[in-house]
Design brief:
With 426 residues, this protein is α/β, with parallel strands linked by helices. 40% of the residues lie in helices and 20% in strands. It has twelve helices and 15 strands. The strands form three sheets. The chain has a seven-stranded mixed sheet, sandwiched between helices. The protein has a six-stranded parallel sheet with strand order 2-1-5-6-7-8, with helices on both faces. Strands 3-4 form a two-stranded antiparallel ribbon. Helix 6 links the parallel strand 5 and strand 6. Helix 2 crosses helix 3. The protein is globular. Keywords: Nucleotide biosynthesis, Signal. GO terms for molecular function: magnesium ion binding. One of its GO terms (cellular component) is cytoplasm. InterPro entries: PRTase-like, PRTase_dom, Rib-P_diPkinase.
């Protein structure tokens, strides 16, 4: 169908070009005939006085002989250029129409939602805000007395509403126990004759454990990838949507039955920044700058890059390596925060360099052992006016004090729907 449309556009373009050439030729010949008639010897005697008749006649003959014809090389070159531009414009319009139709079709897809316990609030928001597209089926995540899983999904009885459908599984791997339980559910779903499975895992906790420097160390990023890749096949690969994966090459650990779909939370931050006076984006290291700096070009913000330098006794000091923050309102951007030591040191350096205000954004607020309290008001690391995070780790963000506190949580709901439909990537 697409080839037919393109061929039809090409035929229309050629037809319009031939009609334009024919019209131009007829108009040009009429002009030549009129010019020749006007300056013919019979007419010059009536238009010019006798003394000027001969010179006027010679001038008219010379001018007529110099009149450009429609068949000149320049005319055809110009027409061909116009035809080529017209064809390119029409093809561009056809592509936009095709993409619009494709996107409209994607936005009509319906999903049956199964969610991990920590993601049940997100599942309810999706089904409540878009009831025609998302249907949420609750799951009982129980345990037997011996500690093994006793899981029961709704939507299968008395009527089976899951088989033959597109299933959206909202995952949260915040502990090993819940992770294994969720893999059990994904296996059952894929064995239930579903049409497709999309797993939304906003935060991959093993993204930082991807290398082995000492034999015997377990690279859990690789082992989790093996688990995903070994999932049953329902006819199409399982789509694994992950936001701001710490190590981007981890996507290539997946194979066969699972494919990574990498997304980013930066658009959420950019939308939020438009209502703030922030005019500078700082990165705690060169790696973060290489990854995220290009995403802020359209905002025209000053870019500042920090980095760690080694000092005496193997101590590390954060310094500004590129850019100037004096008098600027800054936001430090990184993919995740654990204890937040690097962010804190970076914030102090920016303030010492003359920054008017310093804020922070991370996609994933991990904060083990409630280390977020140190950044809130009254904490020993309270150096940021605003600390933006997303709810990719809901078990942590549900504890953050918003409103009067330093933290502000940016909701992923709309971003997930957009990325689900558009297959946008970072």
């Amino acid at each position: 169908m697409r080839l037919f449309i393109v061929a039809l556009l090409c035929l229309m373009s050629v037809s319009n070009s031939l009609l334009f050439i024919k019209t131009a030729c007829v108009a040009n010949n009429k002009a030549n005939n009129k010019y020749a008639k006007l300056h013919s010897p019979s007419s010059t005697s009536s238009q010019y006085p006798p003394s000027a008749s001969r010179s006027a006649s010679r001038s008219a003959s010379f001018s007529a002989s110099r009149t450009p014809r429609c068949t000149s090389r320049y005319s055809f070159s110009q027409l061909n250029s116009q035809a080529s531009n017209s064809y390119e414009d029409e093809v561009d319009v056809a592509k936009k129409i095709a993409y619009s139709n494709h996107l409209s079709k994607r936005r009509e897809m319906k999903y049956q939602i199964i969610a991990a316990p920590a993601q049940e609030p997100l599942a309810r928001r999706l089904s409540q805000q878009y009831p025609s597209r998302f249907t949420y089926h609750s799951t009982s995540w129980g345990k037997f007395p011996d500690g093994t899983d006793n899981i029961s999904m709704s939507g299968f009885s008395p009527l089976n509403l899951i088989s033959g459908e597109n299933v959206l599984f909202l995952a949260s791997f915040h502990s090993n126990d819940v992770t294994l339980s969720q893999f059990s559910v994904m296996i059952v779903l894929l064995q239930s004759f579903i049409d497709s499975l999309t797993v939304v895992l906003p935060y991959s906790p093993v993204g930082t454990m991807e290398r082995v420097t000492k034999e015997g160390t377990v690279a859990t990023a690789s082992t989790y990838a093996h688990l995903f890749s070994s999932l049953p096949n329902c006819g199409s690969p399982t789509r694994l949507m992950v936001y701001d994966l710490h190590t981007l090459q981890n996507r290539f650990y997946l194979h066969n039955n699972a494919i990574a779909s990498l997304q980013t939370t930066i658009p959420l931050l950019k939308t939020r920044l438009k209502s703030t006076p922030i005019n500078c984006v700082a990165f705690p290291d060169d790696g973060a700058a290489k990854r995220f700096a290009d995403l802020f070009i359209d905002l025209g913000l000053q870019i500042v890059i920090c980095g760690k330098t080694r000092g005496p006794d193997n101590t590390r000091t954060v310094k500004i390596q590129e850019g100037d923050v004096e008098g600027l309102n800054c936001v430090i951007v990184d993919d995740l925060v654990q204890t937040g030591g690097t962010l804190y040191e970076c914030g102090k350096v920016l303030k010492a360099a003359g920054a008017k205000s310093v804020n922070a954004f991370v996609a994933h607020a991990v904060f083990p052992e409630e280390s977020y309290k140190r950044f809130d008001k009254g904490g020993d690391r309270c150096c940021f006016e605003k600390f933006w995070v997303t709810n990719s780790v809901p078990t942590i963000t549900e504890k953050l004090e918003e409103g009067n506190g330093v933290f502000e949580v940016l909701d992923l709901t709309e971003a997930i729907i957009k990325d689900l439909d558009e297959f946008s990537s970072m």
